[in-house]
């Protein structure tokens, strides 16, 4: 599944679709999710990723699926990795 555009960080989606107009502060969201305000801020600002544990918390808190959040994180991470120069790798397949 190759993507030609930069997918949004899941923290951006969390902010735009669930928190921005909700009236819930970042501090309150952090409390409700059982994390520190600093951790919440790092996620919302794209400095921290969505772990499997956080995906489960978000799924429960927002009535979404954990797979949606981990899928967004994976798409974001893969796109970012594709932008970086990597060393040439050789196949691990056995020579015939």
Explain this structure:
- With about 100 residues, the chain is an all-alpha fold.
- The chain has one domain: lambda repressor-like DNA-binding domains (434 Repressor (Amino-terminal Domain), Orthogonal Bundle), CATH 1.10.260.
- Helices cover about 55% and strands about 0% of the residues.
- The longest helix has 17 residues.
Write the SSE topology:
Elements: H1 10-19, H2 26-33, H3 37-44, H4 52-62, H5 66-82
Helix pairs in contact: 2-3, 4-5
Task: Give a quick precis of the structure.
The protein has helices at residues 10-19, 26-33, 37-44, 52-62, 66-82.
CATH level-3 fold name: 434 Repressor (Amino-terminal Domain)
Structural class: mainly alpha
Order of helices and strands: HHHHH
What characteristic shape results from the CA principal axes?
elongated
What would the average pLDDT be, to the nearest integer? 94
What is the assigned CATH homologous superfamily? lambda repressor-like DNA-binding domains
Keywords for this structure?
0% strand; 96 residues; 56% helix; 434 Repressor (Amino-terminal Domain); mainly alpha
